[in-house]
Every structure is written in C-alpha cells, then in structure tokens.
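All the exercises in this workshop are built on plain-text protein records. An example says more than a description, so a record of this kind follows:
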Amino acid sequence: MMTTTVDLQSLEQLCETLYNPPSSDSRIHAESVLNFHFPVFSSLEGASGSDQDGSNGGLDGKLQSHNPNISSPIGSALLCRDLLESSKNPYALMFATSRLKALVDDHFNTFSLPEQSGLRSFVLQHIYQHPDSPQFILASQAQLFGVITKLGWIGNAEFRPLLDHVQVFFQHGLNHRILGIQLLSAVALEMNFTGTKNAATHRKAAVGFRDGQLLPIFKNALSMLQTALQMQQSDNETSKLNIAILSLIKTCLSFDFIGTSYEETSDDVGSIQVPALWRSVFEEPGYLDLLWGCWKSFSSPASVVAMECLSQAASIRRSLFSTDADRHTYIYHIMRETIWTLTTAAGQNKLQDLGNFHEFCRMLSRFKSTYQLAEVCDYKESDQWLAAVSEFTARGFHAWKWSPNSVQYLLMFWNKTVSSLMSAKQETEMFIGALTVDLTRAYLKSRLDCVHAVMDGEVDDPLESEETLLISLEAFANIARTKYVESGQLILTEVRTLSQKYQELIQRASSLAGSSSAPIGSSDLKEQLMVVEMQLTWMVYIIGACIGGRVLYQSTAEQDQMDGTLACEVLGFIHQLQVWTARRSLYLASPDAHLHVQSSIIYFYSRFRESYIGEDAAKAVKVYTQLGDRWGLQTPKDVLDVIVSSSLSNLQTSNDPAWKSQEDQLVVRTLRLYTNLSSGYSSVKYMRKLKSMQDLLRNHNSDDFKFLDPSRRSSDTVVSRSRTVYYTMLSRILFADDNVDADFWRFIRPWEVILNQVMLAFEGKGGLGEAQIRMILLGMFKDLRGFVTSITNRRQFTLFFEWFYPTYTPIVLRAIELWPQDELGIATLRFWHEFATNKSNRVTFDSSSANGILLFRETSNILYTYGRDLLNRPISSESSKWREKYKGIMLYFNIMSVSLSGKYTNFGVFKLYGDKALDRVLEIFFQLMLAIPVADMIAFSKLSVAYYTVLDVFAAEHMMGLPMIPHSVLEYMFRSLGEVVPAHVQDASCSTLACSAIDKICTFVLNWLIKNKIRQDGNGEGQDAVEMIDSDITGSGGIAGGGEASFNGVPSLGPISLLKLQQQHGSSLHWLVEYVLSNKALMSHLFVVLFQVFAFENRNNHWSLSRPLLGLILLNREFYEEYSQNFVQNQLPDRRDHVQVAVAGLMEGVEDNLTMQNRDRFTTNATAFRRECSQLTLMAVPLGDRNEMQ
C-alpha cells in the first residue's frame, strides 16, 4: 500500500528515474508511484497492470488505484501546479508539464471556466517568470499553453484576445520577446493540429482562431521582422530572435486555412489557401520586399528560414488577388528577385549555402506548381528568367555532391513547365523546347560524372536508393520527351559512344586474359570497365524512363521511332553484357555493380512492357519496325521471349557469400518483373506460349535456382518470400491456358517425387533424416502456398484438390505434430490458410460430393493438434510473446475464420452424426482466447485483426447454434468487444468488426424475443406474456411512444421479463438470450463505450459504430432513458435545452425492432445527433458505477 504523501526531493528523484532510468524495473516503479500521486483518470491508465491473465471478467480491472486524497482531475492538476512552483529540477518540471497536458487533453471540459482561466494564467505566468529554463521545458510548456488555449477557445471568451495576453513578453528583454513569439507559434501550431477526439470542435476553434487572431499575429510578426531588418545586428541572440520571427511567419502561412488537413510531407504540391481578408498584405509590395531583404541580409540559418517563408509566399493561391494586374505584379516581383539571385555575384554567393540552395530550389518548384506558364510568359523578361533558371538547373544537376535532394525540386519545376506547353504560344513552346534539350544534355553529363565520384568514394551512390531514383527519372523523362527527337539523339549518341568504349575494353580484357603478362587486376582496366559499365547502367535507366514516359494519345511516329532506336541500343548492350559475363573472371566483377546493371535492365523491360506490350501494341508499328530490322523482333511475343530468356539468369545465383545480398535483391526484382509481365491479360497469354516459359514450367525447381533452397536464409522478409512469389507467378501463367490438365500434372510431378520420399521417410523407409525432411517440407509448403494463391476458379482448385487430397494431406498433419514450434509449423499453417480460403468461390464441390466436409475435418485435425501445442507452450519473456505464441494463435484464428465462412461445409452434419470436428476447433479456440490478456489481444495488431475477424464470423452463424458457451468465455468476448472500440489505433477495422459482432448478437436476441412474442400472442396470451426485465422496472413498451405499435408488419417488442421467460420456456430458453438479459450492466457498458466514441471522436467508421446502438438501446431501455437524462444534466446550463432536443431527436420515429428501414432511420438520426454534439461542444458522460460491470 502506497503512502498518500511524498516529499519534494523524493518526487524529483522519481521523475529523474522516470526519464533517465538505470533499469526497466526502476522505470516501471517510478511510473507506478507517480501515477499514484498524479493520476490522469484515464480509462487506459495502467492497462498493462495486474490483469495479465485475462481471466478477470470485470470491466474496471484496468483502472489503476490512485491517491485517495485526489478525487478529480482538477485535484491532480493542482498538484502538478504545486510541483512546477516548488521545484527547479528539470525532470520534475518536464513531468509536471507533461502530466498537466495529459489531464487537459482528457478532462478539460470537466474544469469550470474559472479553473480553466486560472490554469492558463498560471502556465503563462510560469513561463514569464522562468525565461532561463531549458529550451525543451519551455517548448513543452508553450505547447501546454497552446493546448489549453485551443480547448477553451470556444467556451471561454477570455482566451480569445491572445495577442493582448502575450503582449507583456514584448515589453521586456530579448529572451522574453523570443518566448512571446514561441508562445504565438505554439498556439498556431496547436490550432492547426486535429486529433482523434472532437475533431469538429477543434476545427471550429481553429476557424475562430484563423478569423480572429491569425492575421493580427501575422501582421505583428511582419512588423517585428521589419524592425529586426532595420537593426542590422548580427550577434547570436539577435539571430535567435530573427529565426523565431521568421518561424512564426512560416507557421502562420502553414496554417490549414480550409481544413484539408494535408500532410507536411505533401506541401510541395498545391497552393496555400489564405483567406480573402489577407489580400491587402500580399498585394502590398512591401511584403515580398521584406522577405527578400531578410534573405539577402541575414546569415544562415536565419536566411534559410527566410527562404522557407519565400517558398510559401511563392505558392499563395492565384485567386486571392483582386485583379489579374495585382497577381501579375506579385508574380513578376518574385521573378525579378529570382533573376537578381541567379545573375548577380551576391545572389550566387547566398546560394553557396546548402540550406539556402535547397530552399531556393524548393521555392522554384512551388512557384511553378501554383502559377500558370502563360502568366509567367507574360513577363517582359520571361525568356531571361527561364534561361537563368535553366542555367541554374544545369548547374544544380551537378549538386549531387552536396545537395542531392535538391535535384528533385528542379526536375519538378521543369516537369510542371513542360506539362503546360500544350496551351502555350508557339514561340514559347519552341524556346522552352530548346531549353529542355540543353537540360537533357546537362542531366546526362551530371549522371555520368557522378559515376567517377562514386567510384572515388566522394558521394553515396544514387543507384542504391532505387525508389528515389525512379521518381527523378520519371520527371526527367517528361522533360526529355518535350523535344524527343533532339533529346533522344543526345541520348543515342552517348549510349553508342559508351557501348563502343565498353566493347573496346572487353576486347582488351579478353586479350590480356590469354597472355602471359600481369594479371588484369593489377592494372586499372577493371576500374575502367566498372566506370563504363555503371555509366551504361545510367543510360539504360534513362532510356527506360523515356520509353515509359510515352503517352499513347500524344506520341508521334517520330517519337515511337526514337523509342525503337534507343531500345535497340539497350538490347545491344544487354547482348554485350551477357557475352562478357559468361566468359569474364569473377575477379573482374563487382556484386554491387552486377545488381545495379541488372536492375536497370529489369527497369527497362518493365517500362517497355507498359508502353509497347499489351492491348495497344498494334499501334506501335514504328517501334517493332526498328526492333525487327535490327534484332528480328517483330511482335510483342518476340520481345517477351527476349525479356524472359535474358533475365532467367538472374534467378541462377552463385554460392559466393560476398554476392548473396545483391543476388537476393536481384531475385526479388526479377520476380517482380515476371509478376508484372504476367498480370496483364494479353501479356500473360503471350507468356504462356513462350518456349522459355514452357521450359521453366517443366523445370521450375532447377538446382540452379538457389533461392529455392530453404537453407538459404535471409533476414529480409521480402527476400524470404521469393519462392512463394515465384510459384504464385508460375501458377498464374500455368492456368492462363484453358486446356491445362496435362501441363498441370507435368508441373506437379517434381513435387510428387519429393512428397513421396517424405511419406516413405515418415514410414521409416528411405534415407532422409529429420533435418532433411524439415528443410524439404519448409520449402515445399512455401511453394504450395504460392501456387494455390493464384488459383481463382473451381476447375483449377479441383485439379489441385484432387491431387493433394487425400494422398498428401497426412503430411501436413504429421508436420504439425512433429514440428509445431518450428518455422515449418508457421509455413504449414500459412499454406493451409490459403488452401482453405474460398476466394472467388473456387472451393465449390458437386452436390453429391463430401469434399467440403472432408476438407473441414482435415482442418479440424490440424487446428486441434496445433492448438493443443499452443496451449502448453510457455513464453520465455515479454518480448518474445509474438514469436513464441501469438503468431501461431493468429494463424489459428485466420484458418478458423476462413473455414467457418467458406460456405463449402454444412456444419450441421457434424452435430447430426456426432462428429466432434467442429466442437474440437471451438474448444481450442475458447481456450486460446482466454490464454491471452485482452490488452495483448488489442496491442498486437495482426493478432487483433485475426481475433475480431473470427469473432465476427463466429457471431454471424455459429455462436447461436451451440448448446452453451462457458460464462468465462462470454465475459471475455464481451469485454474484448467493449475495449477495442475506444482503443486509439490507426486501423479502424478491429472496431468495425467488433461493432458488427455486437450488432449480430443484439439482433439475434431481439429477433428471438420478437418471435417469442409472436408465438405468445398467437396462443392468446397477448400482453401478459411479456413484462419488464426486473420487477422494479415499469413503463410503456416503446421508446418512441407506442407500446404495441408495429413497423412494416413487425410487432413492437414491448417490455421484457427474464423471469417470465424462464418460467415459460425453462430449458428451451436460449442461453444467449438469458445471458444478455441477465447482464444488463454489460450491455450498458457497451452502449456507453459505443455512444461516446460515435458522438465525440473523429473516426472514419461512424456508420459501423452507429449500427449496434439501436439494438443495445432496445435491450436496455430504462438505462438509456437514465443515461440520456444524465447526459443532458451534465452539460453546461445554457446548452441543456439544445441538448435535450438533440437527444429526443435521436429516437424520433424509431420503433422497437431491427428492420432495415428502422435501422436506417436510427442511423440518420444518430448522424444528425453527432453533428449537434460537435457544434455544441458537449461533454461525454462516463458510466456511473463501474463496479456493477463485474
């Protein structure tokens, strides 16, 4: 038992231990003690506490005990305030600030208006009195001030004159002024942030702040910046002030003015939607003069922030300006300053700074993304401006040495520019077209020069980041295709020159290899070969991007001819490379270079396929004319044959450990190419007819394919899935032909041989050892899983099923029995999960066939065997839960859900004939469920999705058909359903599934009661057949008004009496109906949880959250009446009348049944009610007595 008091020194020591713990146990202890003395009164507090066995059915088990002297959030907040006032320890200050923020976030509406104002004034005063506190504490306290201001903005008018409250900071020294600016920035940033709770209310506060305070703050910042620019001081403190002012301006311009909630990562596209009220600021030339003046005068890093502000200024929305003349003046001002920067020594000197250079490139990109090319070209010096930017871009392409990320902005600028040429004047189009040719030349030179720097170790290799590389290449391709004949000629000349040089170097290496002179490696010949090979790699990437940039309806015959010519050169290089690779010594090769060059070829193939292989291939006559004249490739099928045959060698890896990583990556990329080629309708038909592919189908498990060796391990999950992806692709190609039976049996023949050997080994025959069997089956089940994945129809599945069952299914069960805890067990279950999944209704058998029942019986045997092992499997440590146990349970749940929902098994047969197949699966399912704490079930995302999926499936059909479910299982189910809904997880699928399961349970119970009422009325008992749930409950039947009203022919349920039902039905009373009616507190809790999340949180599944609410209301109507009245009374007095009307509207026109029309009417009312809650800024009301839930 903890003491209720603790001294300041002990508190400071606990806070220091919390943030700087010597061990995890000490941190947990410190956190526990601090939570006791400074409770946050959160329903999630202490979720990982005592309830680890998951057996506690009470719903209050999560709440951690706290100091009995603190009975409310305001009491805890006052203690935090005392700690801030009395301590100087930075850890204690940080803890108190963070805890105050948590209390404010969760319970601000429980504070009275004077308490809200007092807390805000205290925080502001504390910051003012301690300007020398560490910066991280000041930043945290400024954020706390921002949170309080945002939450109280609507309800507390005292919070709104923000500038007046902060003005005292600007009347003192430099440090206080910086703090004042940081406070304004913190409020603006917090107003711009939309959380998951009360998003509509937060947006309303943000709009009020935008309309009332943001513009005055912005103007005030501009005034301070003007003063700072006139002072021309360069000391360190003044620089901090300048940075703070510029950061405030940047924050104001970054505000989400229209509520789009765009991400910061995407702010390089789109314009800033400043309100029309700001028009006067931007139409005054002094605004841009001020920012450009600061950039010219201030040194880095202040100048970098100034350029960030200019980047925002360059993307102000076009429609803001009063007239076209005002907008043109603004545009021309930016262009004029840009020309000065690019053409003067002072401007060039500023761009020598890395930060300035990068932000300047970003400014150019955002400027062009906002304003139209026609507006730019109306400027009298537009040609000079475009030429200057072109020259700067050409130089910028060589900035890969010190600012590689800036090149992307320059490419984006020109990509946007050339995309607008279709609507430009002819002379403009010609001028920009000429510039793109120069840019193509510069880009080619920069990429080729980069190879030398990479070889010398001066820079990182851009080829290593393929994702970033491809984005840049696609932007460059659009630029190069503007004048494609001229630009293509530059590319063609370069690639031919390099190919000739490569051929000469190969000849030299070949001649030296046969002589008695010094080894090749002793000279620089290897380095020369590497340089040229990497340069050709760049050229292949560039040509692939240019070909992939083809737009069908825009491409001309000349452009297609150029594509064909360039493609011929690439194929020539590929032929050179294949010949040289076959005979060169491994010493002359580099694993990284091999990966890069082959990756470029794969990229070229994939881009060529997108543009010239498919349904529109007949329109690409010029390309195939070029390919046919030089290489004899007349059709897309011929090209596909070259692609497949030339890239198959990528799958044939060596045994050199130094090459393993690169070869694994190459296998992944090659399989991705094959998957892409086999995904199109036309291309997969072509692939099926290729001789090389037919050879591969007949010899798919070649020993040369080392990636098929299960002993070849990789920590990269993408690499480890290669063989599964491989057989998924082969299966798709195999089944592309309608007449596939003979080919299928030839394809699976190697598998038959292997599986027959395994079966003999299990019988004690043959020469395979345990380790060999395990490795063979590990690879086999990965292969089979991939193969089954691509099966999409009944005929294909029947072929596989008739081969695999019943001959080889015993191997699956035997593998689970022998190696359940091995990775083989996981691979086996993954295969069976795919095998038992009835996607596209592929698992469909004849009406006279028992295969569906037999398939589930095999599933039952596998799940029962594996489940028993899971139950007895210990967990060595908290960190190994997933690997040792939860991963297997997830797979159990997944297999169970697809089997129960597959629609290929009549489960009533098992009960009819006394077969325990289904009962055993459910028995293990219940035990596995109880073995996992609810907190873990929610915390592990994959496990959570699997669990709530199977729970939803179980509640749909199977739950109600059981004779009984243990109460411990039911308690766990309902508890887990209630706890996942309010959990703040990014994926809403779990809460959606939980709502679906709750709705199905409520629907069953209510429908059962309605049917019972109909039967009783038919027997003449009428209204006497039903009463209220307990003898102390009275009232009329319908909530909306009419006790015995009917809706679309469905009678109103009326009042319900559990005691009466028990007397009438005895043992025939359905156990689920009895359980639900006898646990009204449980249903009350579920209603409150769903109601609060639906009404007050910003979720994207509101429809799903609303569906179970009606059923919960109808099952516990008295509680709903009490709760709704309590909800109204807990609101502020001036809002109660409005809330009363909103609550009454929730059930308006809603009857006592769950017909679809009635559900839809309730959902409409609920949506309107939620809208009212967000507009009125209401407070949630928790369930009164949590102890009754136990």
